[in-house]
Amino acid sequence: MMYKQVIIFTLLAVFLNPLSANATSAGELLALTCSSCHGTKGVSHGPATPSIAGLSKNYIIASMLSYKHIDNLDHAQDIVDERKNLDDVVILKRSATIMTRIAKAYSIEEIEKLADYFSSQKITLAVQDSDKDQAKKGEKLHDRYCEKCHEEGGIKPDDDVGLLAGQWQDYLRNSMHDFRNSDREMPKKMRNKIDKMVKKKGANSIEALIQYYASQK
Amino acid sequence: MDKIDRRRFLKLAGFSLASSALFFSTKAFADSQRIVIVGGGIAGTTAAIYLKTLVPNLSITLIEKNTKYTAGIMSNEVIAGLRDISSITFGYENLNKINIKLINDAAVEIDTNDQLIHGKKDKYKYDRLILAPGISLDWQSIQGIDNAKNITGWQRGVDVTTLKEQITNIKNGGNILISIPKGPISGPAAPYERASLIAHYLKSQKSKSKLFILDGNSPSEQTALFKSIWSQKYKDLIELQTNTTTEGVDVGNKTIITNQGKIKGEVINIIPAQRANLIAQQAALTDKDGWCPVDQRSFSSTKADNVHILGDAISPALGLRKTAQCANSQAKHCALAIAATITNNETYKRSMPLIDVEYSIIAPSYAISTVQIHKQAREGLRYQQLDTHVKDVKVADKAHREYGYAVSWFNNITQEIFA
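The joint structure predicted for all components is written out below.
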């Protein structure tokens, strides 16, 4: 009888603990800070701040480190090179109005945890207006010049590439502006493709691409 | 019963006793963990939502006197006629969906000994109180003011739309006076943002009018920043007088009396000095300056047990600004601290940076931002500030981007807690 009571009490104690905490990772807790600008779980309501849910881990780490060490990108590259699990991360220059200030708050360990969390969140495409004719032109341009790296219409943000499909168009426009102005460094392959496209199809082709990505729902 | 069995039995019984004690105490603990939140602004609503997210089976009640939330964020766009007030008004319907109990009542008194809140309609017992009451305006510092008639634009709703009407109705050539009190206010850059957006309106509609800012504070990094922008965008439209304290007002003659002399204006917008909301003052939760001292990690009051205080009401001694973003960040830190205590979950004990961003809109498609990053100092109550840079404000292209980010921030922070 004693045994029975013992077992019942034990079971009760284990299963009826009324104040159980939700299972949360360190990255998820750190990410709470990001949601007021980038949206809950990294899904932005726009119009200019990008969604970061579902971006690749390497992409997030590279971006955060280039913001943090904007004055010394070599140092940022050293940081990832020293880490075995991050040694394929390539630091390229990125400019920002606000993230260069905010990224300074985080250590590399915290940045990695944030990257783990956001890269495992579901991509949600932004609902926004777009120009149909431009989007049609953009689709052809994409297939020809971008698809090789930005696979499946830009919806697969693997490795080093960002999310293009369903990303907020103000953000895409700002990014392309920075790339073209050398405020943001393009990978060599991208620079060649963009140069070729603009030479052949004119500067307006960039806006057509943006409308194509914005049109994906 | 042989030896081994007995030993095993005793061990099991001991464990069981501990567990059943744990069971009863946790059950009692759950019953003794009625969380009541007073104030459904950014701080209170954020705390409610994240505490519920972290500890889903916790009983949380939010007491708020208004049925809808009208944001202070973007209210200057309403005053300048750039935005309708409906676009900054939000309902609380989302709270019911996640089992947060919303009570429409005005808290009038808090008894921190009996842990009891007296509302206009009912009384509410709490085991842990999160007080996010905002500020009270200190009318006594200004002689001759009729607080019922003075339009501050600091009290949301009608106060904001009335100021908008006054600005719209001003005759071309009539002057506007904005008086800023000495000391901390809710929205530290908000009067400067307001001046900028009104100047934008005057520039296109009432170019003979002029706006005077009577600022009780000494010149600062902030005033220098805005002055440099105004000299480009609103030359001769805004005149800033620092160290100018409003002492009284002559309502009949539409005149403000300052320590520097008298000044006349067709529209007078006096923002009075501020303190923690009266309810916190009356519950003896404030210090001699009228603000609430709190612990920097959990935001628990240093004046009463089981009380946490968030947002604009907390003491400036912590080094945190009274902004919406800071209130939102504080609430998340507080929710984590409470969750750590009541669930005994170590993961929640981690420290994370507290990030505060304040956007100021200067004109449509033109905004600036200031960022403060705080990390807890090893000792003492003060947050340690790491970075407060203001960059690139002179580049129109960046200011255009900052406007996009300001609007995005407004959309995301309001969706985060009101959707």
